[in-house]
Amino acid sequence: MNILIKITYDGTAYHGYQMQKNLKTVELELTKAISNTLKKKTKIYSAGRTDRGVHALGQYANFFADTTINIGNLPRVINFHLPSDISVVKAQIVDENFHARFSAKAKKYRYILYNSIYRNALYYNRAYQFPFKLNLHAMEKSFECLIGEHDFNAFMGRDAVVKDTIRNIYSIDIKKDGEFIYFDFYGKSFLKNMIRIIMGTALEIARGKFEPSYMEELLNSKKRAVAGPTAPASGLYLMDVIYLEDCLK
Fold first, then answer.
1. 71-124: pLDDT as tens digits
2. What is the CATH number of the domain that holds 85?
3. What does the buried/exposed string (b/e) look like for 195-219 if buried means 16 or more CB atoms within 10 Å of the residue's CB?
4. Burial of 88 (0-12, 13-18, 19+ CB in 10 A)
5. What is the tens place of the pLDDT at every residue in 151-180?
6. pTM score, whole prediction
7. Catalytic residue among 51, 85, 159, 246
8. Is the same domain home to 112 and 97?
9. Which CATH number does the domain housing residue 168 bear?
10. Does 95 participate in catalysis according to the annotation?
11. Are 58 and 108 in contact (CB under 8 A)?
12. Which domain holds residue 40?
């Protein structure tokens, strides 16, 4: 049977999600835990990758297995073999043709900004502490040019290997709650560091260093060198992967 699991993790201690030779990754720990649970080497198929230090509340992976373990109890058994900063929170049986990556229709990422002049120990590596006053209207205005399908080469990190740099952002929503500001990005897929570079650039605009139109200039330039800094990974979360209901049983 084809089993889909939902995973949460704190990415602080890992070299990203994807398996890498001789490096500690979330996918490596997850593969080992599932193989130990099933007492058989098992290949998993993941919805996507996250960069080093990025967190997840809604990463997904599927794998094929014949097991007598009750599907509702499977997360608890897998978690027994996982470190405390990675957890499986849901498991379900899906169609045999389901693939965690190729069946995905959209992804939601959230960037969390802690807009305070004082650091808070409980938010360390959980949000980006940004102590400066921000013009959220200018920030929101700068995002307008990014909605839709564009060449996002100017917002791609170094050493990324991709077929092309065309991506489609469906929406970017901003919500302020006290000292926290949440930025929700919806799209089919994103380039390496894309959201973090967009955030780094937008924060420069929000501080008054550039006009909102600067974002569109960068987009059209297709040059990473003229874009803003890459915002820290600690503020970025993969919140969810959206699948069509007919992909699921």
1. 999 999 999 999 999 999 999 999 999 999 999 999 999 999 999 999 999 999
2. 3.30.70.580
3. bbbbbbbbbbbbeeebebebbeebb
4. buried
5. 999 999 887 778 899 999 999 999 999 999
6. 0.93
7. 51
8. no
9. 3.30.70.660
10. no
11. yes
12. 2-102
